[in-house]
Structure formats: C-alpha cells, structure tokens
Amino acid sequence: MNEQIVPDTEHRGIVARLPQLPRDLAQLGRFDRPIGWWLLFWPCVWGVWLSGSGSQFALLGLFLLGSIAMRGAGCVYNDIVDAKLDAKVARTAVRPVASGRVSKKLAWCWLIALSLIGLIVLLQLRIEAQVVALASLALVAAYPFMKRITWWPQAWLGMVFSWGLPVGWFAMRSDNLDVLAAVYAGTVLWIIGYDTIYALQDREDDALVGIRSSALRMGSHVQGGVGLFYLGAVGLWGLGVWFYRPDWIALLALVPVALHLFWQVATLDPDDADNPLARFRSNRWAGALMAAACFVVGNA
C-alpha cells in the first residue's frame, strides 16, 4: 500500500532493506527521493561555474554533501510542522511523523544531526559565503507555513531552493552582483514552475484540507502558467549572461536548457496521474543543462 500511496519514492531497493527505524529516518530525510537534493545542488554548481573559477570539483563535492544533508534537514522540519496536515493527505499520510512511526522528539534529534553535517560543510567555505548561507535560515524556517497563508508557497520555495546560487557565487567572488541578481531571479521562476508541476499531484487533497498552492490557483491555466514562469526564467538567465558577457554567441549556451523547459510544458498533462511527476523529475536534467551553460559562459 505504501508503494501506491507514495508514488514519488525512488531507489526503494537500498532503503527497503534497512531495518524499520533506519528506514523511517531515511524516508524522513527523503534519501529515497534524490531529485530533491539534485534540485538544491544544481544552483550551487551554477554559482561556482558562472563565477569563472574553473571546475572546483572538491568544492562541488562539499556542496553536494551539504545539499543532501540540508535538504534532508529541511524535509524533517517540514514534516514536524506539517504532521497534522500530512495525515489528511493520501500521498503524505504514511510519512514517518504523520503516521506516528517516528516521534517528534526523535525527528528533532535527526534534524539536529543532519544540520551538524551542514554546519561542517559551511565551515569549509570562506566567510562571505558562510554569511550568505546563514541568511537563508529565516526563509527555510518560514516555508512550511506559507501554504497556510498564501496561494504561492512555490514562490517562497523558489527563494529557498535558489539560495545555493549566491552561496556558490560568494564562495568564489563578491562582485558583479547584477549578474547574480538576474540569474537568481530567473532561478526562482524556474523553481516556481517545476514545483507547480509537482503540486499537481495533490490538487484534490489540498483543496479538501485547505492547503494552498500555485497549481490550485492557476486552475485550468496551469500549463500556460508554468510556461510563462519558464519563459521568464530563461529571459532572466539570458539577462544575467548578457551582463556577464555581452555577446550574442554566449546566449546560445542557454538554448539546450530552454528547449528542455519548452518540452516540459509542451508535453505536460495535468490530468494524467504519472505525467506531472515525470516532468518534475526531468528538472534534474534541466539543472545539468544550465550548469553546462554556466560553465561555458563563465570559463570559455
């Protein structure tokens, strides 16, 4: 039954072989759903590679570890805050805290452990990047409450999941903030788009329990709405590239990611049970294509 209710679980093999408590903790940190930390990690890569500092693979390894740990910590915090709401939604009712398999006290301990890993990573960065990273904590803490007070919690998530971009940038340099601002704003729009696609899975349950989302707000116009957000994302990314390197040829680096996002919108079927999840997951490749563009623009 769990397999049917939680359709976005991936790589069940390793997690499924764990004893009950470690399996519950792994699921609580969403280690069975790597798409989340990919989406948190890619903006970090963009910031580093667009800065023109070369490949920096050791640093990116730290960012990957930090993304896995802090995405897990964020999910644990979200599940603690949303335990009662999650219990009312079919897809989330079997989550460890909502179902009662993991106590809130143990969940808090797990949150602290994951946060300590993130702290170790943070201390490896230069001070400017540390300050920028710590500035995100208020955004992270407020996010679970946004779905109760606004139809656009995806916009708040956009600010949170984009934060790796300025952290990566400030880990390398502190100038050209116009470039950073444009690319960051575009990344926020990209995240609003893909998280709206993700929210399509829960429209009926969200409406019943009073959870707000951009997918519900857009209604029958969700496909066009996502398209507009993606178009704005590509436009702002292009503006950032132009600020960095005013050369029309440099803009060609964005063509692959732009085509991928167009494909997502063109093939999105909001009423298909599996289609939105597949399109959402494909954003790991959108992130990779944008990373390639940033490397080309920043280091070519």
From TrEMBL:
EC number: 2.5.1.39
Subcellular location: Cell inner membrane; Membrane
Keyword tags: Cell inner membrane, Cell membrane, Magnesium, Membrane, Transferase, Transmembrane, Transmembrane helix, Ubiquinone biosynthesis
Membrane topology, from the record: Multi-pass membrane protein
Any Gene Ontology biological process: ubiquinone biosynthetic process
Catalytic activity entry: all-trans-octaprenyl diphosphate + 4-hydroxybenzoate = 4-hydroxy-3-(all-trans-octaprenyl)benzoate + diphosphate
Record-annotated membrane-spanning stretches: 40-65, 106-123, 155-173, 179-200, 221-242, 248-266
Cofactor(s) listed: Mg(2+)
Keyword Iron-sulfur: no
Enzyme class: transferase
GO cellular component: plasma membrane
Gene Ontology MF terms: 4-hydroxybenzoate polyprenyltransferase activity
Family from the record: Belongs to the UbiA prenyltransferase family.
Function: Catalyzes the prenylation of para-hydroxybenzoate (PHB) with an all-trans polyprenyl group. Mediates the second step in the final reaction sequence of ubiquinone-8 (UQ-8) biosynthesis, which is the condensation of the polyisoprenoid side chain with PHB, generating the first membrane-bound Q intermediate 3-octaprenyl-4-hydroxybenzoate.
Designated name of the protein: 4-hydroxybenzoate octaprenyltransferase
The species this protein was found in: Altererythrobacter lutimaris
Gene: ubiA
